[in-house]
């Protein structure tokens, strides 16, 4: 397996990205771009995103995992640079970068996103995306952040224009522009023609399983929905999860 680090420019900042491939000269090998979740990074909880990338390569894919601006090793500040609007722009720029790499020219692009990264993948409107995979995706961001992720008190505080801190049991702080962006733009998953795989844990206490159930019912394209015994970050379930992902992908390129 080969891997290399790249810097990708977005929002006047450098995004840290890792490219994983068995070979950079294989024809028709799909490129899977992996998007992490809120307060996460391209490595992931218990190395989830890294393990997914490694499994994708073993299964014959190219994987690109990156940090959104202000997260992980990317430039920027989490508190100021984290918004869904900004993350969507970052993903757009990563896709544009992939399309410009000579070795990747003409390869199909798949998008994989976990949690808030799942919302970014599902709301990305580019028609050329071949497949989408959503892991415990945020489907109703306003309700989800107001109720489970931030809680009503921090939500109101942020909506009033004040910074907030200490949510999800972590020491992060974030400016009010994150909540205000959610409230103003009302991001929701979009309908796409591309096939969609949804995977959600039935022990998820952060992002409700009901959102994925609703998404599956309403999505009009080809779709599949898997519920597994897992929490929000799929603790202890990486092998089962990656087997599901690579198995589903294999049916799309076989």
TrEMBL record:
<dbReference type="InterPro" id="IPR050261">
    <property type="entry name" value="FrsA_esterase"/>
</dbReference>
<keyword id="KW-0378">Hydrolase</keyword>
<dbReference type="InterPro" id="IPR022742">
    <property type="entry name" value="Hydrolase_4"/>
</dbReference>
<protein>
    <submittedName>
        <fullName>Alpha/beta fold family hydrolase</fullName>
    </submittedName>
</protein>
<feature type="domain" description="Serine aminopeptidase S33">
    <location>
        <begin position="30"/>
        <end position="130"/>
    </location>
</feature>
<dbReference type="InterPro" id="IPR029058">
    <property type="entry name" value="AB_hydrolase_fold"/>
</dbReference>
<dbReference type="Pfam" id="PF12146">
    <property type="entry name" value="Hydrolase_4"/>
</dbReference>
<dbReference type="GO" id="GO:0052689">
    <property type="term" value="F:carboxylic ester hydrolase activity"/>
</dbReference>
